[in-house]
Write a structure and sequence with these properties.
Bound molecules: uridine-diphosphate-2(N-acetylglucosaminyl) butyric acid
Shape: elongated
Mean pLDDT: 96
Number of strands: 24
Helix content: 25-40%
Strand order of the largest sheet: 22-23-1-24
Structural class: alpha/beta
């Protein structure tokens, strides 16, 4: 699938932010831990969610998904073997490891896929499962973990990994005794997953701090839980607002505290930013200042907004820099933006971008989710037509992006 975009429009208006992808992809597998039916609300209708639902249906679960409400019926006999080839499609499928290990002490699953952002090992996840008492059998294709008993322990994470923190929580909630995760990640999605587990009867303390304490329980019950909204989706539209010459973009249904690193930055470089209880308004002012940003774990500047931010840098006179410190290669969009005449250099882990007054038409390819978003933002700067192929990558993680962009006034069409 591809999109064609004719840019140079005044983009303005309101965007309603959907449920958080990175909460949803963890909370759906986590629902396996319950012994009763689970209802989860605000689940975004995105391809990664559709893939997880398909995997669970292949595992024999009865699932209803309608109007952003997901109902997962509990299952008496849960198989440890996740044979589905679909797990290779998304990173979040590795949460079946923690969930099944926690539930039935055994899991066999294909290696998970996801965006290619350089090397993405899962050694911390596997080390932690073993510290909890699991035995690991591994080959190039699959992971097999088995325990007679999981026992709480103290775990020091070398790096506050989002995935390893969540997977460790999932494996530990039904382990015997107390598990402490030191140097835990504190992203809002981790707090969300933790709150979801608590709503099912788990005992998880210290969420949102670097020390998470989990006291194992025997059983998890039903819940009716609403997940948080997507700060990265909101951030992407705020960056779009900062790039356009319209009367401003308002993102609604988002907790502004999740985005302080971005809103502070946009204000510092000269945008008008207004923060309300559940919404943020942004308006570009004439001259924005060039800037440097370094991606960091939360509450630092999120790596997931680095690629979209590079499109904003194209509109600013002078040289701006993004230093990527989380992933080894989050630069797949750079060569594509260059095809439109963008002036960009990659030096080690830094992207250096010098603003260009005009970009020209080109045929681009999206290689990963946030890179796809960056290309769309870049295309809004070209008054001719930009074609972006492989737009499936965008649909993995943004809900109704074409409709939302059209509502803001962008001339964008989706073609098969
Ligand atoms: N790492 C290891 N070993 C591990 C785990 C991580 O070396 O066992 C390294 C990674 O290679 C990476 C760094 O630690 O260099 C951070 O990885 P982390 O585990 O924090 O990230 P993740 O769980 O793989 C999640 C999100 C990403 C988001 C990052 C950082 C999901 C499904 N993915 O990835 O989201 O960028 O946290 O916030 O939640 C996206 O939405 O576009 C996306 C890539």
């Amino acid at each position: 699938m591809k999109v064609k975009i004719r840019g140079k429009r005044k983009l303005e208006g309101t965007v309603h932010i959907s449920g958080a992808k990175n909460s949803a992809v963890a909370i759906i597998p986590a629902a396996i831990l319950a012994d009763e039916d689970v209802i989860i609300r605000n689940i975004p209708n995105i391809d990664d969610v559709a893939t997880l639902i398909s995997i669970m249906k292949e595992m024999g679960y009865i699932i209803h998904f309608d109007n952003n409400i997901l109902i997962i019926k509990a299952k008496k006999r849960v198989s440890y073997n996740v044979q589905s080839e679909l797990v290779k499609r998304l990173r979040g499928s590795y949460y079946f490891m923690g969930a099944l290990l926690g539930k039935i002490k055994k899991v066999k699953i294909n290696n998970s896929g996801g965006c290619n952002l350089g090397s993405r090992p899962i050694n911390y996840h596997l080390d932690n499962f073993q510290k909890l008492g699991a035995k690991l059998l591994l080959n190039d294709e699959e992971v097999y973990l088995k325990a007679t008993k999981l026992k709480g322990t103290s775990i020091d994470l070398e790096f506050p990994s989002v995935g390893a923190t969540i997977n460790t929580m999932l494996a530990a909630v039904k382990a015997s005794g107390i598990t402490i995760i030191n140097n835990a990640a504190i992203e809002p999605e981790i707090v969300d997953v933790g709150n979801f587990l608590v709503s099912m009867g788990a005992i998880v303390e210290g969420l949102g701090t670097p020390i998470i304490k989990i006291t194992g329980v025997k059983r998890l019950h039903s819940t009716d839980y609403t997940i948080i909204s997507d700060r990265i989706e909101a951030g992407t539209y705020l960056i779009l607002g900062a790039m356009s010459n319209g009367n401003g973009v308002r993102v609604k249904n988002i907790n502004p505290t999740f985005l302080i690193s971005l809103t502070n930055l946009l204000e510092e470089i000269g945008c008008t930013v207004k923060i309300y209880e559940n919404e943020i308004f942004i308006k570009r002012e004439e001259q924005l200042k060039p800037f440097k940003v370094i991606t960091k774990p939360y509450p630092g500047f999120p790596t997931d907004l680095g690629q979209p931010l590079s499109a904003l840098m194209l509109t600013i006179e002078g040289t701006s820099i993004i230093k990527e410190t989380i992933f080894s290669n989050r630069f797949s969009h750079i060569n594509e933006l260059k095809k439109m005449g963008a002036n960009i250099e990659i030096v080690d882990n830094e992207i250096q971008i010098t603003g260009t007054p005009n970009l020209h038409s080109a045929k681009l390819t999206a290689y990963d989710l946030r890179g796809a978003a960056a290309l769309i933002l870049g295309a809004t700067l070209n008054k001719g037509i930009t074609q972006i192929d492989n737009i499936e990558t965008l649909l993995r993680g943004y809900e109704y992006p074409i409709e939302k962009l059209q509502k803001l006034g962008l001339n964008i069409i989706l073609e098969s």
